[in-house]
Design goal:
heterodimer; A: 436 residues; D-Maltodextrin-Binding Protein, domain 2; 17 helices; 16% strand; globular; B: 320 residues; mainly alpha; MetI-like fold; 0% strand
């Protein structure tokens, strides 16, 4: 049968393989590999960002890192950029193998989950600095600040002015947004005008976090919510109550009445600029592109619709945090302190076309100064923003809500779909002992 | 296993014997031995890779399936017995996903295997330009499935190329991927288009192993085209057939990329598959234990189907 040397070698090979994999685990447990100190006493800190597909914002981040690396010789920050689609998966995989970078960015609503899971360390000693930031840009969990972002974004209705004026529709203001009835008759009038392929586009083709980010505020505006925020224990009554069902029916009616495509095209922003769409539900990040386009004079940025309970928009965008496994936390915090200066907040917000998180930074970004053309977005954010549920169960809630909302849009029975979502969310919160 | 290298020496030579061997014989034994060592070295990397990337993960899956492991959690996994499986079999989404997976496999296997055979027969001729067609049929295979899915997603758009083409004939095409009745079929057609080239090449290699003199003998006996295919080609392709059947089945059961890129399981779960659910549950819903249970069920399913296929396609002529 099998010869002796073969057996011996096979055993040796398996042993080596095992040793290798064990060594890999061992290395991970100490997590020290992510902060290496070289002969000159310079410690390298790894930093991950989701910005690989966004050259302008990545450029601004790289500039901060270059400035920081040039300002001292003790630490050297090294940026690694990921595409947004695979970023969260990469971080979770890295955390599972205990090889998280020292500094990383995190989408606001995921902060409680990552903090609870032990990925993130509190930003100790930065509280005074963080106090100057818009509340929706701070990732707080259990009374501690775990993350802070340079900017927030505001949801809005980006509309063709001519479509409103030609059809005799009132242009809403922040003090007097559209009511639901007004909105529906506006849609009917624009559709009757027949000039646009899509009367409304709410970017329903986007499979990611857009769904909970964009549509749960509408649910809140009707009077429902993703989970009961008193104690974060159950979604019963808020996600499947009469208000939620009313929202679901309204949401579905937008496609059945032919105002909105069931699934928007590959690039809804471009569809709007090309004159296919009259009203685009979009974020403030789209403003720069619209103003630079050929139809710049014909675009207005309107507040979200008041569906009964006042207009609501999602708060919290990408934020920066320090990982708990970082071997040189003082270095990571030192970088954070440096990077949170107002001039950098202004630089990143300007590059990303987003709302600067501090007042001082807002004054530095053209357009966001008081009375500037972009100041309205900051006002939207201040008045309407509501952060997504602050519970480690949020990723589960978001995924479950997305599926329910997609099913509803495709014709599932609203009450049934929402009941099912509530059942799943409640059982997840419970099986985690309510994240106590 | 009886024909291993060592079989040349049923009784290994003792040291005494080796010393008495002539130089020629000694060299022979020596080279045999070094061959064995070389073989062992050659097989070790493959074994190590298999162990790390296949065997250990499979064992882990088996263990995790009986725990409440979470992707992100401050506490470690706890043993929960068959809870995950009880939940799994009570979940309507699992049954829908299973149904879709089986439906997909049932249609994709004969269609893809049949079409591949037809293409292989077409290009197994000696005429000018046949290489051009071989390349054309094989092109989709070397293109990444993600890219193919993205392109076909555009083709399937309500106002995409396919519907514009149908409109020429006055047909109002549906929203292919947005309609629960057409979504799975649309993905099936695309998958066959992408995968057919690969199996065409396998069929082709099978066809080219059939000795030409068998066809000549058939021609002398006056066999027509159909008879030649029925009584020479088809029986001679038995080995190839088994291989193709099993690989397409496993591939079809593992349907994931197309779903992830094109429909995310929608609309109304009409394209949800078991592997897609395992990934969604494991990563988006962060329930590693439950996802492992799903994977375990999937493993058993594929294993069972493969065994049944092995049994049905076994060599019935082999004497006991």
């Amino acid at each position: 049968m099998v010869s002796k040397p073969l057996k011996r070698l096979a055993v040796a090979g398996l042993a080596a393989a095992l040793a290798l994999s064990l060594a890999a685990c061992g290395k991970g447990n100490s997590a020290s590999s992510e902060a290496q100190t070289d002969a000159n006493g310079t410690t390298t800190l790894k930093m991950w960002t989701h910005n690989a597909g966004n050259d302008k914002e990545l450029g601004a981040i790289n500039q901060i890192v270059a400035d920081y690396n040039g300002s001292q010789s003790k630490y050297q920050v090294e940026v690694q950029a990921f595409p947004q689609e695979s970023y969260n998966t990469s971080v979770t995989a890295a955390a599972a193998s205990k090889s998280l970078p020292c500094i990383l960015d995190v989408d606001g609503p995921n902060v409680p989950n990552w903090a609870w899971g032990g990925y993130l360390a509190p930003l100790d000693g930065l509280d005074d600095q963080i106090a100057k930031f818009l509340p929706s840009t701070v990732g707080e969990y259990n009374g501690k600040n775990y993350a802070v972002g340079y900017y927030d974004v505001a949801l809005l209705m980006q509309a063709r002015k001519s479509a409103l004026v030609d059809n005799g529709i009132r242009i809403p203001t922040i003090d007097q947004p559209w009511t639901r009835d007004e909105f529906m008759s506006a849609l009917a009038a624009i559709k009757a005008g027949g000039k646009f392929e899509n009367t409304l586009d709410m970017q329903t083709g986007d499979p990611g976090e857009w769904w909970p980010y964009a549509f749960s505020p509408q649910l809140q505006s009707v009077g429902g919510d993703l989970i009961n925020r008193e104690d974060y224990k159950s979604a019963d009554g808020v996600l499947n109550g009469p208000e939620a069902v009313e929202w679901a029916n309204w949401f579905r009616s937008l496609t059945t009445d032919g105002y909105m495509p069931l699934k928007s095209g590959e690039d809804p922003g471009q569809d709007f600029l090309n004159g296919k769409t009259a009203i685009l539900y979009n974020g403030s990040w789209g403003a720069a592109g619209a103003r630079a386009s050929g139809i710049a004079d014909d675009v207005v940025f309107l507040p979200a619709v008041d569906l009964g309970n006042g207009p609501k928009i999602g708060g919290g965008s990408w934020q920066w945090a320090v990982s708990s496994g970082c071997a040189a936390p003082e270095g990571a915090l030192d970088y954070m302190k440096f990077a949170l200066q107002d001039k950098y907040v202004a630089a990143v917000a300007q590059a990303a076309g987003t709302i600067p998180a501090t007042d001082a930074a807002a004054a530095m970004v053209p357009g966001y100064e008081a009375g500037g053309q972009d100041d309205i977005f900051r006002q939207f954010s201040k008045q309407f923003a509501q952060v997504r549920p602050v519970t480690p169960g949020y990723p589960f809630i978001a995924t479950t809500f997305t599926k329910a909302a997609q099913d509803i849009l495709n014709g599932a029975d609203p009450q049934q779909a929402l009941d099912q979502a509530v059942k799943e969310i409640d059982s997840n919160q419970q099986s985690n002992n309510y994240f106590q | 296993m009886t024909q291993t290298i060592g079989a040349a020496h049923p009784e290994p030579p003792t040291v005494d014997q080796i010393e008495k061997l002539s130089l020629r014989q000694w060299r022979f034994t020596k080279s045999k031995q070094s061959q064995r060592i070389a073989a062992a070295w050659l097989v070790t990397p493959a074994c190590a890779l298999l162990l790390i990337f296949v065997i250990i993960p499979i064992v882990l899956t088996f263990v995790l399936a009986f725990t409440n492991a979470k992707l992100i959690s401050p506490t470690g996994p706890q043993f929960v017995g068959f809870d995950n499986f009880a939940r799994l079999f009570g979940d309507p989404l699992f049954w829908k996903s299973l149904r879709n997976t089986v439906l997909f496999a049932v249609f994709v296997v004969p269609v893809q295997a049949g079409l591949a055979l037809v293409l292989a027969l077409l290009i197994n001729v000696k005429i000018r330009g046949v290489n051009f067609f071989r390349t054309v049929y094989f092109l989709p295979v070397v293109t990444s499935m993600v890219v193919v899915s993205l392109l076909w997603k555009l083709l399937y758009q309500p106002n995409g190329l396919i519907n514009n083409f149908l409109a020429v004939f006055g047909i109002d095409g549906p929203d292919w991927l947005g309609n629960p009745n057409t979504a799975l079929v649309s993905i099936l057609v695309m998958s066959v288009w992408q995968g057919v080239g690969f199996h065409m090449v396998i069929w082709l290699s099978g066809l080219q192993t059939i000795p030409q003199d068998m066809y000549e003998a058939g021609a002398i006996d006056g066999a027509g085209n159909w008879q030649r295919f029925r009584y020479i080609t088809w029986p001679a392709l038995r080995q190839t057939r088994t291989f193709i059947l099993i690989t397409i089945t496993i591939q079809a059961f593992a349907l994931f990329t197309q779903i992830q890129v094109m429909t995310q399981g929608g609309p109304l779960d009409s394209t949800s598959t078991i592997v897609y659910q395992a990934v969604r549950v494991g990563f988006s819903l962060q329930q590693t234990g439950y996802a492992s249970a799903l994977s375990l069920v999937f493993f058993v399913l594929v294993l069972a189907v493969s065994l049944v296929q092995r049994y049905l396609t076994r060599d019935k002529d082999v004497k006991k």
